[in-house]
Design goal:
Layout (H helix, E strand, L loop, with lengths): L6 E5 L6 H14 L3 E5 L5 H6 L7 H26 L3 E5 L6 H9 L3 E6 L9 H4 L5 E4 L5 H7 L5 E3 L16 H7 L1 E6 L4 H7 L7 E4 L22 H10 E6 L18 H9 L3 E4 L14 E3 L2 H13 L1 H18 L2 H16 L14 H6 L2 H13 L8 H10 L6 H15 L4
Parallel strand pairs: 1-2, 1-3, 3-4, 4-5, 5-6, 7-8, 7-9, 9-10, 10-11
Helix pairs in contact: 1-13, 7-9, 10-12, 15-17
């Protein structure tokens, strides 16, 4: 682990499955003691997608989208200048262009991406992976060799995880159990393999939650809320209320409804952390993550349907599997552990992290004249807690305080009061 806390900027994607993972990473890094700021790219998503509603020709729209992404890169750079991070951590699909990555490298700021996607389906990594100092992935071979072949020599296998303070068992009310509960449940998108595999469950006590089930007339009565998106808080209730949670990994094809892929999806770790029972298809990388008696698995549709019947009829077995899986995740598969592993790997490959220095640039004269010794002594701690760099000015501190939610300390409240005072009476 780094010898001292780091300043870390986490860059989220504008949308997609890696968005919540990015938030879990930020929370985990903060829990490890680092000063973390988050670039909230989702705030810009509506503007980006809105360009396609202008009715322009495709070439014009593409040009505007490229210009928009350049503005996003400038916004990331502005936050970099304010924070002076030791590390910029990007999640898959994060809006970091080639020019910005090159700029960060020239500035001596370390960069890492956690590519939490299937490299065979999403291949944009080919143009970007070599520009990151470290490229973390959820697959092994042949992906690691392919990365080495294009010049990325610092690739790290980093499987997904759970966030125990969020993915946890819940005590549900009777009304919540009626609303969310069922013998069989699935939460996720309507990929082709799932649509076909689930048709044999028509007429059962079976609830499907999530989006992208349009056009699926046979399963329509099982799709809840018309296929509306389900927020994270409700997802925890659904998983806790369901007796048998189906966890069939996605596949774009239907040649094999059980895809027999390699990586283990986030749902596997999250369900386990909640102490919720799941039935999951076997994956090539699963045996090194879970023991055979920790997850109930299947390899064929015949096994899938038989296991559903078995575990509905045997609640004690469900509970035993769920308890063992939860213990394993809490011991080995949390986001804090993943982030610690990432930082250690970067230190091993790139050398020791710089020793952080926390200071504040010369204060405005009117502030310096009235600042009490007590506030002055605590100012460095405030700057560190806000994730600002050693060249932060007083206005940077104030802006960061105003942007942050939650309760203020006495020192922070005093600084905001001082700023209001100088606006009215001070000299600028």
């Amino acid at each position: 682990m780094p010898a001292a806390p780091l300043r870390i900027l986490v860059v989220l994607p504008m949308y997609g499955g890696s968005l919540p993972i990015g938030r879990y990473c930020a929370s985990a890094l903060s829990a490890l003691g680092h000063s973390v700021r988050v670039f909230e790219a989702p705030l810009l998503h509506a503007g980006f997608t809105g360009l396609r509603g202008l009715g322009l020709a495709p070439a014009q729209t593409a040009q505007l989208e490229n210009s928009f992404l350049q503005v996003v890169s400038q916004a990331v750079w502005a936050l970099v200048q304010a924070q002076e991070p030791h590390l910029v951590l990007a999640l898959a699909q994060a809006p970091l262009g080639r020019s910005l990555l090159q700029r960060l490298r020239r500035a001596g700021i370390r960069t890492a991406m956690w590519f939490v996607e299937d490299h065979e389906i999403f291949d944009y990594w080919k143009g970007y992976a070599p520009l990151y100092d470290v490229f973390a992935v959820i697959q092994k071979e042949p992906f690691l060799s392919q990365l080495a072949g294009i010049g990325q020599g610092n690739a790290l296998y980093l499987p997904l995880a759970a966030q125990p303070d969020f993915h946890k068992p819940l005590e549900l009310s009777d009304q919540e159990r009626r609303e969310y509960g069922a013998d069989i449940g699935f939460l996720g998108a309507g990929y082709p393999n799932r649509r076909l595999a689930f048709r044999q469950l028509i007429g059962r006590d079976f609830k499907i939650w999530g989006s992208d089930w349009e056009g699926e007339t046979l399963l329509a009565n099982h799709v809840q809320r018309g296929g509306a998106r389900i927020d994270a808080d409700e997802s925890v209730k659904i998983y806790n209320a369901t007796r048998v949670n189906l966890n069939l990994h996605s596949s774009l094809g239907t040649a094999e409804l059980v895809s027999k892929g390699d990586f283990v999806n986030p749902r596997t770790f999250e369900l386990a952390a909640m102490g919720a029972f799941q039935l999951v298809d076997r994956r090539a990388l699963m045996p090194e993550l879970f023991a055979q008696d920790e997850l109930a698995t299947f390899g064929t549709l015949e096994e899938f349907y038989a296991a559903i019947e078995h575990f509905i009829a045997h609640p004690e077995e469900r509970q035993a599997y769920a308890a063992r899986a939860r213990a394993r995740v809490l011991r080995d598969h949390t986001y804090e552990q993943r982030m610690a592993a990432l930082l250690d790997f970067m230190e091993q490959r790139l050398g020791a992290w710089p020793q952080p220095e926390v200071a504040v640039q010369a204060l405005p004269p009117d502030v310096d004249a009235v600042l009490t010794p007590e506030i002055r002594a605590q100012l460095a701690d405030v700057v560190a807690g806000l994730g600002l760099g050693p060249n932060a000015g007083f206005d940077d501190v104030i802006n960061a305080l105003r942007a942050r939610s939650g309760a203020l300390t006495e020192t922070e409240a005093a600084l905001l009061f001082l700023d209001e005072w100088r606006k009215q009476y001070g000299k600028k």
